[in-house]
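Below is how a single chain appears once it has passed through the pipeline. First comes the sequence as given, then the structure the pipeline wrote out for it. We keep one example in the README because the format questions we get most often are answered faster by looking than by reading.
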Amino acid sequence: MNNKDSKYNDYNGDPNGFDSGDNLMDMLDENLEEFDSEHFHEFFTYAGDNYREEFGPEAEETVERGRVRERKKKRSLLSAFFYLIGQRIKSRRIRKLDAAVPADPVIREPKNIPKEAAKYSRPLGSMVWRSRIALVICAMMIYLTLSFTISGRAAVIENNSFLLVSVLMIMQLVTMLLCLEVPITGIISAARGEPGAETLITASFIFTFTDSAVKLLTGDMSQGLPFSAVSALSAVFGLRGMMYYNSAVRDSLRVLSKVKSPWGLVADRESVEDRVVLRRVPYSTDGFYRNLMGRDICEHVYYYAGLLMPIAALVLALLSTVAKGRSEDFFHALAALMTAAASFSCMSAYSMPFSIISSLSRKNGCAVAGWAGADKLFDIDGILITDKDLFPKGTQTVAGVRLVGNMSRYKAAEYAGSLTAVSGSALAEPFRALMDEEGASAVDVAEFSSYDGGGIGGVVRGESAMLGTAGFMTTMGVRLPEDVPSGRIIYLSVNSRIAAMFAVKYKAADKVRRCLGELKNTKLTLLFALKDFNAEPRMLEKKFGIQLTGAEYIPLEDCYRISREEAETGDTVGIMNKNGFVPMARTAAYAAKLRQTAIISTFVSLLSSAVLMFIIYFMCSKGPVYSVTVWGVGVFMLASWLITVILANLTRR
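Resulting structure:
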């Protein structure tokens, strides 16, 4: 026995001694050519009757404890009610996915994606400098208003309140002209019967401008200064919201236009029974643009707010002034209420986090299909994860080999390497390296079988060979040696006798560990389709240091079926520049962050407006209308806007 031979007698050998050669793929192609044919599936037979002995008892014990607990526990009326509600919600989600059209049919796919990206990029420069000029004007308006309120004097205007109101009207009008897209969109939306946040900002401008004009015509300044500065700021923040949206769409479309061979994330309804799962499909971009350009949550919510808030403002103004016998205060109260309705964040609650997410996604070579894509991803039941995703190339090594009987190292490497190559599991890579080290190459495997007991088998060079765990070998009636080594050992049996033992070392990649943690936070169920019989739940939790509670493991037979079947292209919720677990996990995590942040930000924006409107109504009803000051309303609205800014920037974490 030479030195090279003796190195493999101990399973604690050097794991770095099995580097794969450059010509290994060529050898595999030559020897496994018939398995690439259209009749590849004929080589597969499945033996599903044997239970996965390696981790079956532990799983069965856990399931049985749950059954006993359910039998002992009598469901109360309240818990039964919530259980039925949960079942109804789940069935409603499934019906929603089944009934959903691929994407918004009204939106047409553009002929040229780069030109479409340029269309959204072109006005960004103008929006930036116009918003900055408008912010300077608003700052001057705030200074004049505050100084006059505190000291009764406003710079060169001195104590002339009529002149001050006139100046504020002119500055407000200039601000609206600088932010012209906002009022134009608001007017067009209202004319079409589809009001939104822009409509509220436009209504705020109209009523505050009208209030200023009434003060000049009547000469009555007893109600206080108009809310011109706050209304102008709403328009500026609205323009900034449009700018965020354009930037987000541009970044997403640039990812799509610059990827030559994109991979799409689609909802697959065929792979797993009664489940809608997220899968990667090459060259799938159908529906991405329509999802990206579809209506977002702010548009949905502020459609109803645009209808109800002006009516609410009118009713509250009437109740707090005219009903109290103070009709002269009506326009001022109405202007205050409409100013409160147009919050600073009404147009950026979605677009700001969307812009941040799109920028981060673009840097990582992926893109989320806007609100529609993120929302549809939330309705998906789980995300498919394979053993190659968990253990990419270089994270598994054959650390050593122990031979039994007359088996040679060359033959052991050839048999084990051929079986793993045909299986398509992540174990194929370390055993390829072992074959290359021994100078062996993969050979044909006839009657290949996969077993749920934790192993694979087939006929190699006319001999019956099996590869699997100790539990699998025991299940198949193969007697194990008495001095079985510890660790992740894979056994090779030839003609029902143990011929070799391989010690396999696993290394958890940091990127994979982070991605698993991010996916856990998305609330998507992790569906493990693992063909590596060593990758059982307890081992995965130990290696990655993550509790995989709630994760599900697809039967081995289904894992092979899923790997052979290609998911049909469908409604694409995200795209990636390459195939891989990391970009898939990041896209799903970004989509979940976008959806969660947009919902919370929109809720904060709408709630702050409603609360402020109620406070203004209460103050106007219980006291003089001038108690509602410009700076008080502005500070409240600015505070709610800062909350949405903080929420949006948390997506960077």
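Residues 1-56, 69-75, 94-103 have pLDDT under 50 and may be disordered.

See the next section for the split statistics.
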